[in-house]
Design brief:
single chain, alpha+beta, four-stranded antiparallel sheet, three-stranded antiparallel sheet, 22% helix, 38% strand, elongated
Length: 177
């Protein structure tokens, strides 16, 4: 039994949910998100909550149960609060600047790295070593953060590179004399 799947997803005030034509749409103060529904799981929009149950007792249905409930929870969380990922850049001459729908990174290469920001995602640079990515879709926010981080992963000797805020980088010792 899925411990996560047993709990219904609570719908806060100001948020509406509806199921039609195999999609769940959730509308809230920040926008609207949709999710294609799985045939292995049944969804019920009740008074103030969305219940997710496996359609049958097969192993495949039970394995989808918790994940589908988490996806529904992410929809509700996204339209009420949104999601934010913060990246920190460390290194001499490494900097970032948001320019409209593009993010310009200087990461020690012979050229600047320009990254196009997808629709529905907002990128801010409060200072030149911090990048804040925000939006209502958790998958898009996390994907853009991972693509930015991929350009210069933190290295284990000096810790230079792009890391998530709060991420611990295991540092290796240098040469011993």
């Amino acid at each position: 039994m899925s411990r996560i799947g047993k709990k219904p997803v609570v719908i806060p005030g100001g948020v509406t949910a509806a199921i039609d034509n195999g999609t769940l749409s959730v509308k809230g103060p920040k926008g609207t998100l949709t999710l294609g529904l799985s045939d292995l799981v049944t969804y019920e929009v009740e008074e103030g909550a969305i219940a997710v149950q496996p359609a049958n007792q097969t192993k495949a249905a039970r394995s989808h149960w918790g994940m589908q409930r988490t996806l529904v929870s992410n929809l509700v969380e996204g339209v009420t609060n949104g999601f934010v990922k913060v990246l920190e850049i460390k290194g001499v001459g490494y900097r970032a600047a948001a320019q409209g729908k593009n993010l310009k990174l200087q990461l020690g290469y012979s050229h600047d790295v320009d990254i196009a920001v997808p629709e529905g995602i907002e990128v801010k640079t409060p200072d030149n070593t911090t990048v804040e990515i925000s939006g209502i879709d958790k998958q898009k926010v996390g994907q853009l953060a991972a693509e930015i981080r991929r350009w210069r992963k933190p290295e284990p000797y000096k810790g230079k590179g792009i890391k998530y805020r709060g991420e611990f980088i295991f540092r290796k010792e240098g040469k011993k004399k």
